[in-house]
Structure formats: C-alpha cells, structure tokens
Design brief:
Layout (H helix, E strand, L loop, with lengths): L20 H10 L7 H11 L1 H11 L12 H6 L3
C-alpha cells in the first residue's frame, strides 16, 4: 500500500463558467490550503515569457499584442488578426 503521508494531496478544481470554482479556491485559501491558479500563471506567461510571446506572434500575428505589449485576448478570441 502506498504511503500517502509523504506528499500532499493534489486536486484539480474544474467546472463550467459560474460553477463555483473560484469560491471553492477562496474557501481553500481561507483554510490555509495552498491554491495554484493556473489561469493567472497562463496570463502572466502569455504576457511576459519571451519565447511564448514569440510563438504567439508567429501564430497569430502582430495584432495579437496591443501597443503596450499585452496579449489582446478579445481580438484573438474573435479571430480578427
């Protein structure tokens, strides 16, 4: 039988829009349970990681980032490059 006490339990919170994922994560945080927010990290990487930015620019073109160098999520979601 595996010894589960050696590593912390890791769970994923999934669900559709408005299903309560953020509430569950806030409850965990209030209970001092560490929460890794993948959406926040993905946004940061998209805006700050040079190799990722280069790949996005190659794939979607110059309009995929605005004048300030931030990812243009709205334009990209509409497919208007």
């Amino acid at each position: 039988m595996a010894d589960y006490k050696k590593s912390p339990l890791q769970i994923g919170i999934t669900g559709g829009i408005g299903s309560g994922k953020s509430i569950v994560c806030k409850i965990f945080s209030c209970l001092d349970i560490p929460v890794y927010e993948a959406d926040s990290r993905a946004k940061w990487l998209t805006n700050n990681h040079p190799e990722i930015k280069e790949k996005v620019l190659q794939l979607l073109g110059e309009k995929s980032y605005n004048a300030e160098g931030m990812y243009n999520k709205f334009l990209c979601c509409l497919g208007r490059f």
